[in-house]
Amino acid sequence: MAYQRVKGTHDLIKKDAKTVDCIRQIFSNIATTYCYQSHYVPVIEYSELFTRSVGKDSDIVRKEMYTFNDKANRSITLRPEFTAGIIRSLIENKLVVTEPTPIKSYYFGTAYRYERPQTGRYREFYQGGVECVGTSGVYSDVEMLNLVIDFLSSLALHDEIHLKLNYLGSEETRNKYRDALRTYFGKRIAFMCPDCHERLELNPLRILDCKIEEDQKIIAEAPKITEFLTDSEKMEFAAIEEAVKKSGISYEVDSGLVRGLDYYSGLVFEVHPLKATVTQGAIVGGGHYHNLVAELGGPDLEGCGFSFGVERLMILLNELSISVEAPSPAKIYVMPLGEVAYSSATLLASELRKSGNIVEVNYAGGKLASAFKKAERLGMQWGVIIGDDEIKNATVQLKNLSTQEQVTISQVDLIAQFGGFN
Ligand code: AMP
User: Which of 228, 261, 338, 384 could form a disulfide with 177 if both were Cys (CB 3.0 to 4.6 A apart)?
Assistant: First the structure.
């Protein structure tokens, strides 16, 4: 009997596996430059965590979670998203009280949702993202948007995407808005899909996410959340918009954007492909939460975060024929001229390796011409020559092995030039 993979899952092999590796590496490099730290959380959590945070009336909790009882009869859920797990982990490990704020975590891994499988919508999929906890002011939100744009730009997607912003407001604001939506949709529900009937009962905000074309026409005319924001919420949204504009990020306000997770209570945003593609829905989504940390038993800290769908990114990259390359380390061949230079060469090599460069030292000596041949055989890109004069002047000869161009530079500049992946 031949075994098949579980419906809604997929194998990543060859080129696809390499692309996921590259996306992961590019994302973690960029998150690191924004001072985020890698954070791993379990795939399984107690179900209550998601019911409490994502919201018991959300589509995710009502219909999409992989939930089972373990042998001790505890309700366990495969993570449908990462935010709840990361916040739980920050609280449980007391980082929310011991670490200086903001506490910045990034993650990458699989998530599970029992959805109808289709292109860009799977039951097991990869997400990457960040959570920034203990934020203050609008600039944390704007910094997060900058990170998203930097990340997508480094995948050459800068001109291919479209950022949508909205602002949700406090529980009180959302309750008023819900009441208004209940009245509006209540009068029109006979013309809407069965799912919307259920959403009207449970949470009319969810109707705004409905993808059915006929329903969309009714949704377009519905009241907008902006009409219900308090003056201070309106001011905060205006301040975010102002700061986003100053960052040079182009966006559009979409007052129908509510997101499918209940914890957002300030800025919400999504990134969509600019042109119509087979990609289903948003490629990135995120926002600001005021109460989630306290709701999950932590101190009164606000936070913001986003996550992106790796498969959706891959579909978009494929459609646009963009192939991603992870930044590769420089390959440097250090050539000491005689044994007197060996110790300087060793020190230089170890400095260069600290930044992730691939470095080999030619301790075999011999003629420079044969050293260059060896460098070529090893696929080296740079030659670093160090002899008596260079040691005396704290310089080296740096040769670009493909252009043959050679310059004298100080050892300090050499380390600075190769101070990251080149
Ligand atoms: P969310 O946690 O719902 O905000 O989703 C964040 C991102 O994860 C989305 O923008 C998508 O790119 C991706 N995503 C969500 N659900 C799925 C799914 N079922 N299959 C593939 N990607 C998904």
Answer: 228
